[in-house]
Design goal:
The protein is built from 10 helices and no strands. By secondary structure, it is an all-alpha fold. It has helices at 9-13, 15-38, 43-89, 91-104, 109-121, 123-134, 144-161, 166-170, 175-193, 203-232. The radius of gyration is 25 Å and the shape is elongated. The longest helix has 47 residues, at 43-89.
């Protein structure tokens, strides 16, 4: 079984940002490349559209990550204020809820009464327990929204730029698209497989899953480009 070492918890907290950012960067950027290639347009268009997409979509995804995390933190803080008010003004009802939570954890009889008494002596822990067990909410660090957004943006740019690189060296050659395809395929697999560092899934299945999803998106984009070219000549 693959378990996280303590030093990996901070890294794991940003794994979602890295994977989503890298995956989105690859999918959207290579979709542009495949679409332009399918339409048989000038390779220089791939470079311009790819870079424009990379920066615009990267910023869009990073800002969405920032706003989502900020909203999550606002919801947590609002609900925590409500819990503090209820503990202060309706202690009997809240004590009953704590007893129910502990009973579901397997405590009963004298142990249940003793555990309940210990919890309600510490109001901070009391509220923390209610937030996690009753509402299912976890705290969001003050720096989390910004760090998450930056992580997403950097992962998006780093992964999305890789399929564009071949066009800087052999951009006038049709081989550039196939080299770009190979690079994108490898990146899809690597990004997917990297999830196995922090999960219990086999690395090859994680890599294959992301490879297939990315390939499908590129195939759709290539097909659309080819169809448009066929229709308009």
């Amino acid at each position: 079984m693959n378990t996280l070492e303590p030093k990996h918890w901070k890294v794991a907290a940003y794994l979602k940002d890295v994977v989503y950012g890298a995956n989105d960067g690859l999918v959207t950027t290579f979709a542009v490349i495949a679409g332009v290639a399918g339409a048989s347009l000038d390779p220089v268009i791939i470079v311009f559209l790819g870079l424009a997409n990379l920066l615009a979509d990267g910023f869009s995804m990073a800002s969405s990550s920032f706003l989502a995390s900020r909203s999550e933190g606002d919801v947590f803080n609002r609900e925590r204020e409500v819990e503090h008010w209820e503990v202060a003004h309706k202690p009997e009802a809240e004590e009953g809820e704590i007893k129910d939570i502990l009973a579901k954890k397997g405590y009963w009889g004298a142990d249940l009464d003793q555990m309940t008494a210990l919890v309600i002596k510490n109001k901070k822990f009391w509220v923390d327990l209610m937030m996690g067990e009753e509402l299912g909410l976890a705290p969001v660090g003050k720096a989390r929204p910004l760090k998450g957004a930056v992580t997403t943006f950097l992962a998006f740019i780093a992964a999305g730029f890789a399929p564009i690189v071949p066009f800087f060296f052999i951009y006038a050659d049709s081989r550039a698209f196939w080299v770009s395809t190979a690079v994108a395929g490898a990146m899809f697999f690597i990004v997917g497989a990297s999830r196995a560092i922090f999960t219990n899934r086999a690395w090859y299945w994680s890599g294959l899953e992301m490879f297939l999803m990315g390939s499908l998106a590129a195939l759709i984009s290539y097909g659309v480009g080819f169809l448009i070219r066929a229709l308009i000549g």
